[in-house]
User: Fold this.
Amino acid sequence: MKIGKVSSKTISFEVAMGVKGPEKIKEKLTACLDPKLLVDLAADLLFVKGHNKIRKTDGPGDGGRDLFSIDVSGERLLVQCKFHEDCDKTSSSRELSELPMALIKFNYNKGIFITNGKISPQSKREYLDNYSHLDLTFIDGNDLAMEVIDSPLLKAVWFDGHDFHKISNSISFPILLREHNEDLPLIITKHFDDTEVENLIYELNSVFSEFSFTFKSSFLSTDCFEPYKAPEPLSNEEGGSSLFSFSEIIIEGLNTLADIENTKVKVSEVIFSWLGERFDGITLRFGIPSLISNDDSKIELSISPESFINTKDYTGKELDFYNLNDHEFWSGVNDARVTEAGLIRLYCHQLNVCLDYSINSRLAWKEQLTRIASIENLKTKWNKSIFALIEKYDEWPYSNIQEPDEAGLWIDNKRMICAWFHFSLLGWPSDIRSRNNDGLGSIFKLPDDAEWVDKLDSIKNCLSSYKNVELVEPAIARHMVAIIGEDPLRLEEKVLYHTGEVINYPEVIPSPIMPNSRIPCLEIVLAYHEDKVIESDVIQLFSEQESVTGVECDIMNDHCHVRINLKLESTQTKSSTEALNEVSQLAEQILNKLKTIMPKECMVITREYWKKKYNLSLGIDWQDSGKHYGFTNTKTDNELMDFHETMNRLTS
Assistant:
């Protein structure tokens, strides 16, 4: 498992042989353990191996397990620990049998037996053979000690370079607080006085009597918070200068690294309680934590950033607040292909209507910097392109000059602004500049830049020979294109995360996510066979309804597709699940209202329309769909291509 970065202050340890030979390693480990500490070490081992939701089941009657977890593949796992005072003692058959019995009892498939003693090879084979349907792993004292020695993180917690023992380490969390109304940062050590911070530490100590807490100000890059949304507009603390100012909370006294997950939840609750009702809404984001060793070096832990949100109606994890799955009336189930992801909607089977539930957000800070670099690169290619104003034409009038790549009517309605672009502006991949020539050009065969520029210069020379052609400098051409359309090199600071992303990949949305960034839009399609529907009548119908901010109609001969933008002030402090409950009631009212101005025989055909127009089935998953998911060969009656055909298509 990837542990993460180690700070420039190198952590040095003696190798396993430094524990006076491999024959003593087990004894050294046993000397620092007891039954409880063995479970703690096992929990840390699971953490290092990438498990999450690690939970202890201490005490008698634990049913043959000491730990529960979810492994990296998403499977449930049980761990049975057995401590022996004598590390040379071999675990008995009865002790080993507790693991498969527990797996069968709790309907698990995976389990690990961990001991500081010995496990005979015969016993391992016996249980692996007798329970071949189970995934069993056995770790004895020597294996366990070597796991500690081989892992930089376990070493930092359990080995001081000479002997095994539980080392007292601290965990450092970068944290950011964001107030919802103003989208402004709150820095605990900067925006609250010393007495208030002392009160917060007192409240934390009341909940965590075995821990100690320290807050300090830090200047950090945003990498530890990514995907991270900077405030809008940027603030002095975040994004307004070259330094990003955040708080850092240092926690001492954690029994195991696995305790970090639950500790974050409780710390967020205490901080929200401490803030009280001073703010209408707050998001607390924990960045990637680090283990601080005794020598003050840091090891970054492989724990993803996580946000918690507090409003008057909700306290909990941010992703749960915005979760759109498993609603009683609205379903995100569909058979969309990747290329159809933007058409995914929440679907209400009961009313046969759908909901576009998107989130409008600033780009993640890191992605924004990448786009800035990309646009800077495209600017250099734009400056290599050729632009000219030419008299308005229906057919290209110059047979000796290549037709322009793009042309648009200028505002005088007499001339056309024409462009001959550098190849990188025509869809070819283009590298951000680098000293080393090891970019995309070393992978793909790209046009020769010098030859392309020579070709453009030739076009420019030909154009300059015509008196009725006016060459335009690239910088001026950019402004002209922006006047008649939009700036081709603009930096889009905001992006709309469509419903499919919000349903399936909410973790990619930059955090903190502001509750008012949710944009619900109800979509209803009605069919009729007589009369006509007038667009102005539909718009007028909702012109005075407070919960409706806009209406769009696509009216055809026999159907009407209505998009109704909703603004539900009452749901801004509620989770998306609660908001959908209100949308359900509102959708029924809107549908009934629409029917009052529709022809008598009208029918709601939203789902049927989606299938016919977009080939996307709402409420049906891909397993129940007859759609093909892959490249098809039109020459062989749309049969799916095999792997080699697909790769040839992708690389052609």
